[in-house]
Amino acid sequence: MIRVDTDYQSFFPPTEVFKQVANLDGEIYRVGQGRVTLRFEYGGQVFFLKRHTGIGWREIFKELFQGRLPVVSAINEWRALKRLQMISVPSLRPVACGEQGWNPATRKSFLITLELTDTISLEALALNWRHLDNFVQIKRKIIRRVAALVRHAHDNGINHRDMYICHLHIKRSWIENPVGDPEIFVIDLHRAQIRLKVPVRWLIKDIASLYFSSIDVGLTYRDYLRFIREYCRQSLYDSLNSKKRFWLDVQHRAEYLYANRPGLDRSKNTENEDM
Fold first, then answer.
1. If you average pLDDT over residues 147-161, what whole number do you get?
2. SS3 of 243, please?
3. Cα separation values, 42 from 8, 12, 13, Å
4. Burial class (CB in 10 A: 0-12, 13-18, 19+), 163
5. Cross-strand partners of 113
6. What domains can be seen in the chain, in order of their start residue?
7. For the chain, how are helix, strand and coil distributed in percent, rounded to 5?
8. How far apart are CA 127 and CA 143, in angstroms?
9. Are 18 and 98 in contact (CB under 8 A)?
10. d(CA 164, CA 12)
11. pLDDT for position 116
12. CA gap 27, 10 in Å, rounded
């Protein structure tokens, strides 16, 4: 299977793109299990390439035994990006993808996307956003926009599985002049799932991941209530009472993630690890 955006078929001809991908060099951004991400320039534009080389049966069985669906192809992210395009959720622009081989353990695949420009992750922004002149205004607008964006994705059957604030990007130009609503971009969708309706447990995991990753960025109790009200599209009273169990589960999941975050001395942790 090979897919190439019509605007880029002169850059990456479908009959040659696998050979091109195999020989591409660039700045390596990330190396994962059977996957490498690199940045490269071509034709005067900047792209990112995710090249999958197969994760092996051991990793596949490990994911299955832990109740997780293994990601064995870049095609999954291509489909997620195309779905986000359809529902007008800002993300990376998919340019080309392809896969070869029937064996899921050794299947080779790739995804090429355009580079996001003039953006910063919400995680990086939050490190210093208290020094911004319009800090409170910027913070509240971002919270409302993130809540609306996540709700819209969930309502359309998409859950991220890694919905941390480092995977949400915002235009630097908007931060300098925060007029109107900010444009928030969702990235790193290689584990995303697409269904007609997202099961409740995956809604909880997405929102808990957001909560967990924002615990140390200086949000207030009122900020979290703003998120809940916007996500539910109801009054705060109705949001909290009609979905009390849901929000308690979100809180417990986020607290569990925080208590078991990398680098923590778990000998001092008394949290229940069987959640």
1. 98
2. coil
3. 11, 10, 13
4. buried
5. 48, 94
6. 2-114 (3.30.200), 119-268 (1.10.510.10)
7. 45, 20, 35
8. 16
9. yes
10. 32
11. 95
12. 23
Active site residues: 162
Q: Which residues lie closer than 8 Å to 252 by C-beta, 6 or more apart?
A: 275
Q: Which residue has the tokens 């890694």?
A: 162
Contact yes or no for 236/227 (Cβ under 8 A):
no
Token pair for 273: 């690890």
Q: Which residues, 6 or more positions from 145, have their beta carbon under 8 angstroms from its beta carbon? A: 181, 182, 184
> Cα 231 from chain centroid?
17
Q: 215-265 pLDDT, tens per residue?
A: 999 999 999 999 999 999 999 999 999 999 999 999 999 999 999 987 655
Three-state secondary-structure class, residue 29? strand
45: CB partners within 8 A, 6+ apart: 11, 114, 115
Q: How far is residue 41 from each of residues 7, 15, 255, measured CA to CA in Å?
A: 16, 21, 42
Overall residue count recorded for the chain in this entry: 275
State the helix-helix crossing angle for 135-155 and 200-214, rounded to 10 degrees: 160
Q: List the single range of 45-59, 119-133, 180-194 with lowest mean pLDDT.
A: 45-59
Model pTM? 0.90
